[in-house]
Amino acid sequence: MPTATKTRKPLGDQGPVAEQFETMGQQRDANRLGMWMFLGTELLLFGGLFGAFVTYRVIHAEGFAEAAGHLDLTLGALNTALLLTSGLTMALTEQMSRAARPKATFWLLVATIAIGALFIVIKGHEWYKEYQEQLMPVLGLPFSYPGEQPEQAELFFNFYFVMTGLHALHMLVGLGVLGVIATVAWRWRNPPRIARQVQISGLYWAFVDVIWVIVFSLLYLSRV
Amino acid sequence: MRVVTTLFVTWLCLLVLLGISVTSVVMLSLPWSLVAVAACALSMILLILVLFMDLKHSRGLTRVYATGATLWLAFLITLTLADYLTR
Amino acid sequence: MSTPSLEQRWPRDHYLSGGFRLRDWLLTTDHKRIGWLYFASITFFFFIGGIAALLIRLELITPGGDLLSPDTYNQMFSMHGIIMVWFFLIPSIPNTLGNFLIPMMIGARDLAFPKLNLLSWHVYTIGALFVVLTVLLGAVDTGWTFYTPYSTLFTETAVLAAATGVFVVGFSSILTGINFMVTLHKMRAPGMSWMRLPLFAWATYATSLIMILATPVLSITLLLIAVERLFGIGIFDPALGGDPILFQHLFWFYSHPAVYIMILPGMGVVSELITCFARNSVFGYKSMVISIMAIALFGFLVWGHHMFVAGQSMYAGVMFSLFSFLVALPSAIKTFNWTATLYRGRILLTAPMLYAFSFIGLFTIGGLTGIILAAMAIDVHVHDTYFVVAHFHYIMVGGMVTAYLGGVHFWWPKMTGRMFSELWSKVAALALFIGFNLTFFPQFILGYLGMPRRYHEYPADFQLLNVMSSLGAGALAIGYLLPLVYLTWSLFRGKPAGANPWGATGLEWQTSSPPPKHNFVQIPRVSEPPYAYRNQDQETTG
């Protein structure tokens, strides 16, 4: 494996420039701006759901608060902590790849993927529990709710499955991307490119964290 | 490495904020629990954006777009609620 | 500059020379070739959507329902709307002319993300396949708006396929929007400051902004319809306390700004045409820029004017009505500025200029009737009548399609290197103007008299106006078919155009026609404001 080159330019700014650009600075700025804009569209994609949820939360305040109480707060909080930790490992990956440390980069990526996968497993377990408690109004499954307003609760659980499902889908995409980068980082052929890829996918991964913080606050913490 | 220390401190802050918001839901009642949850969520999001996603060192333009998307989401939610709250 | 001979005018090496195998087109990352891919795709869908419109107009010649069954009629207007909005109008100017021109106008070699640009076309194609599937499965009958609960709980038609198609094509919009925005921010040639950008580039910028901020909300809304139909997860189901009006809020949060996706690029094109053929710099450049951005912003705050009679609160209605009136302001500024640009200009009545004039007239009528509709008291009377149909066709067809055709004629010599028939192009422009007014002006009257939209039969009193409208549709069809013929002819037989046949300013005219693969032999440096037609006249004559 090659050692870190000692130039003044950061690692991500080295290597050949794509043909449509004049300088690497232009290319880097364009990539970052493009990714941030994409994340903006992601925010608005979830935003439609958040807007709809907030509206119903206002007009069906009591029913929704009661239904939220049927979610597993412990597992939800545990998952949030896990995701925040994976945000840390991903941010560290970025630092290590920029410092041209192949082993640290690779193992931190593996750690991020492992924590992300654990999140999905716990989420799956939660869904299974809700299925057993007959709180899964999907595909015509029976929905038996012990509380006061079963219709509103069903609406709440519809939101719960759409929101967590869409978020899990984004997690899976992120895991796939990180998996590819991990194999590339293992071979460590083109370090400047790896540094750029880690940075851009790191933005995506952190953003999935941001979305989860909102999802968690809206669903699990709206129980009062 | 100073950056690494900053990242670890950020992570600790995030976990503390998570703890605060979860306990506030269990301990407090309505107006204050809502305030606590909202404040914690907002702080957590800002910490992730600024430190994990390095908005701190980004160009002004990137920050404009990051806030722009949030502003548009605010348009969506407030104007929709404006209908429901005045029916 | 002396006039070079025809042989010299035709560049030896350009983006169309070399590479006519299928994969040279389907896998190209050249923004100019991708522009052609879009051009072919949207032209195809324009005629598919047009056939649906023609069947609608044929049915409405007589008061009784004789040609189409009620169900078929519903499917026809739904498919007409879905195809025309998402598969023609939204990608029309941005993805064809914008793709072709934006890098050239700002002096760049390509868009910032050429592969993403190609992906965007492939995504469009996948979406298009779903629409074809929808037609094969027997179409949808929900209208292009997919209103719940009809679309989720009741209709038996292929809502899922259609919604998937629109969902997929939305990502094509988003990707193109991001690409244009990053390109305009990061790829401008030295000296090309924001205040030197052509207004077409500004309009594309504003359009892209709307695309990336509004389209994701449509995506999630359609996704919610899909999960309700697929998994029974009802978000808008009234039985659970869900609210169908919430669907309308989310839908129009996208679909009203989408109206501005469907007019801003047209305004950009017309600004280029008017300045070129009035040989004048645009009147009030800065106010034009501010108006473009103001329309993009205000466009997001007015969606509730589609829901005045849907059960929305009266106070929200008042708010949305007020914001809607505000949009008239920047639109009026633009219209006045175009006319002021003509003042003391040397006006050349070429075919593109005829289209531009049609645009100004038709857009003004469309805009003014929009103010009428934004007034709540009147809207209660004319809501869901042909008045509304006429209004938005004046904007979308009278405005956008006219501007699109004007733009295609204007930049055709640049895209192909060849000129088209002057006479026939003027005939086509006139046929469009006459046919359009004959089709849609009677619909204003019909609507005001109370004829509701989306019915396949009507009282006999309305027949005369309906016959006029249907005849006009025939003339309109001629206006659309003619360019197809003489433009195709010009591809093979047209006179070589030379780099700048119209004597226009703008960087795209400073490179050869057709342009070389990377647009410019050398990246240009910009040293003057846009539309410096006055300076140019002093240097050269004729």
Automatic annotation (TrEMBL), chain A:
From the record, give the transmembrane residue ranges: 33-53, 73-92, 104-122, 159-182, 203-221
InterPro entries in alphabetical order = Cyt_c/ubiquinol_Oxase_su3, Cyt_c_oxidase-like_su3, Cyt_c_oxidase_su3-like_sf, Cyt_c_oxidase_su3_a-hlx
Q: What's the protein called, per UniProt?
A: Cytochrome c oxidase subunit 3
Tell me which UniProt keywords the record has, alphabetically: Membrane, Transmembrane, Transmembrane helix
Q: In which organism is this protein found? A: Modicisalibacter ilicicola DSM 19980
**Has the keyword Transmembrane been applied to this entry?**
yes
**Topology with regard to the membrane?**
Multi-pass membrane protein
Q: Which family does it belong to?
A: Belongs to the cytochrome c oxidase subunit 3 family.
UniProtKB/TrEMBL annotation, chain B:
Q: Which InterPro entries match?
A: Caa3_sub_IV (IPR011743)
Q: Which UniProt keywords apply?
A: Membrane, Transmembrane, Transmembrane helix
Q: Does the entry feature the keyword Membrane, yes or no? A: yes
Q: Which residues cross the membrane?
A: 33-52, 64-85
Checking NCBIfam families in the record gives: caa3_sub_IV
Protein name as annotated:
Cytochrome c oxidase subunit 4
Q: What is the lineage of its organism?
A: Bacteria, Pseudomonadati, Pseudomonadota, Gammaproteobacteria, Oceanospirillales
UniProtKB/TrEMBL annotation, chain C:
Name the PROSITE patterns on file: COX1 (PS50855), COX1_CUB (PS00077)
Q: How does it sit in the membrane?
A: Multi-pass membrane protein
BP GO terms, sorted: electron transport coupled proton transport; oxidative phosphorylation; respiratory electron transport chain
Subcellular location(s): the record lists:
Cell membrane; Membrane
Q: Which GO terms describe its molecular function?
A: cytochrome-c oxidase activity; heme binding; metal ion binding
Q: What is its EC number?
A: 7.1.1.9
Top EC group: translocase
Keyword RNA-binding applies: no
Domain Cytochrome oxidase subunit I profile, residue spans: 25-527
User: Which keywords annotate this record?
Assistant: Cell membrane, Copper, Electron transport, Heme, Iron, Membrane, Metal-binding, Respiratory chain, Translocase, Transmembrane, Transmembrane helix, Transport
List the residue ranges of the region (Disordered): 508-542
Catalyzed reaction equations: 4 Fe(II)-[cytochrome c] + O2 + 8 H(+)(in) = 4 Fe(III)-[cytochrome c] + 2 H2O + 4 H(+)(out)
Q: Where is the chain membrane-spanning?
A: 36-56, 76-97, 118-140, 160-182, 202-227, 258-277, 289-308, 314-333, 354-378, 390-411, 423-445, 465-487
Instruction: Identify the domain of life.
Output: Bacteria
Gene3D superfamilies this protein is in?
Answer: Cytochrome c oxidase-like, subunit I domain
This protein's pathway reads:
Energy metabolism; oxidative phosphorylation
GO cellular component terms, A-Z: plasma membrane
Write down the InterPro entries for this protein, in alphabetical order.
Cyt_c_oxase-like_su1_dom, Cyt_c_oxase-like_su1_sf, Cyt_C_Oxase_1, Cyt_c_Oxase_su1_BS, Cyt_c_oxidase_su1_bac
What is this protein's function per UniProt?
Answer: Cytochrome c oxidase is the component of the respiratory chain that catalyzes the reduction of oxygen to water. Subunits 1-3 form the functional core of the enzyme complex. CO I is the catalytic subunit of the enzyme. Electrons originating in cytochrome c are transferred via the copper A center of subunit 2 and heme A of subunit 1 to the bimetallic center formed by heme A3 and copper B.
The Swiss-Prot or TrEMBL record describes its family as follows:
Belongs to the heme-copper respiratory oxidase family.
Protein's name according to its UniProt entry: Cytochrome c oxidase subunit 1
